[in-house]
Amino acid sequence: MSKADWREGLSGEERDRAIESILDDALPACEAPRARMRGNFAALSLRALFFGIEDCAILAGIITLAGAAPLAFMAEPGDAALAVFMLAPLFFAALQGLVAWKDRESGTIAWRAACRMTVLEFHAARMLVFGAIAILLTVPLAVAAWIASERMVSFWWMLSLAAASLATFGALSLLIFRLSVAGRMYGAAQAVVISLMPIVTWAFAGMLLAMLPAAAAALLAVPAVVFVAVAAAATILFVRLIADVCTMPFAEYA
């Protein structure tokens, strides 16, 4: 029996079942977006995550140390608290901006679009790791501010302020990124603009606080538990936005 005779001998329903069986065997099983995201994150090593951006991480660390240097000359608790508020997100912001700039100059976003992990998932994984490193750096920052204020303010209060500042900045950065993706702002040049928007916003807020005489006193009057609650809420929002970005149906950034 020829192939033509075999095809003609099949009913429409049998032919559909045969095609479906062939496709099921030939094509990989569809994965749920969240399951695929978890698998990709588990398989992604720190070496791959930081490949090509080691210099950005070192430079961000130098910028953070330079920014924290004025703490040695601050004796007033209010000034130290304002400095912690501004400096806590500095490493995260500097690293994000430097990496976005390097991606734009080197054109690496284009080739990452061909990888199994989408560019949005890769960006989200980087933000998670950058945020985790920045959280660790809030501890020495809080210690430095605590010593600079001559221990007039609790160390745990300084640490809670630093955590709240960093978590809020991280959530703001990712929210802006999420809205830009929803608005179809793709490309390396847009990535640089997006990374600068929260930095400019944070710098403007810090300048306003520094110019207001009562800002430092008001900041010192806030209990540590409030900062802890803000940090927890912002962290939950950050993680939720990470999941939303990674599972968007049009997760194509380049």
Using brief descriptors, characterize the structure shown.
13 helices; mainly alpha; 254 residues; 77% helix
Secondary-structure map with pairings?
Elements: H1 3-8, H2 12-26, H3 33-43, H4 46-49, H5 54-68, H6 77-87, H7 90-106, H8 108-112, H9 119-148, H10 155-182, H11 188-211, H12 215-220, H13 224-246
Helix pairs in contact: 5-7, 6-9, 6-10, 6-11, 7-9, 7-11, 9-10, 9-13, 10-11, 10-13
Structural features, described:
This protein has 2 domains: 1-30, no CATH class; 32-246, no CATH class. The chain contains 13 helices and no strands. The protein has helices spanning 3-8, 12-26, 33-43, 46-49, 54-68, 77-87, 90-106, 108-112, 119-148, 155-182, 188-211, 215-220, 224-246. The N and C termini lie far apart (51 Å). 32% of the residues are buried. Keywords: Membrane, Transmembrane, Transmembrane helix.
- Report the total helices: 13
The count of β-strands is 0
The poorly predicted ranges are 250-254
Shape: elongated
- Could you give a short account of the major beta sheet? none
Overall domain count:
2
Task: Report the β-strand fraction as a percent range.
Answer: under 5%
C-alpha end-to-end distance: 51 Å
Q: What is the helix fraction of residues, given as a range?
A: over 70%
SS class: mainly alpha
- Give the C-alpha Rg: 24 Å
The arrangement of helices and strands along the chain is HHHHHHHHHHHHH
The mean pLDDT is 77
Organism: Collinsella tanakaei YIT 12063
Protein name: ABC-2 type transporter domain-containing protein
Transmembrane segments: 44-68, 80-101, 122-148, 154-177, 189-212, 218-239
Keywords: Membrane, Transmembrane, Transmembrane helix
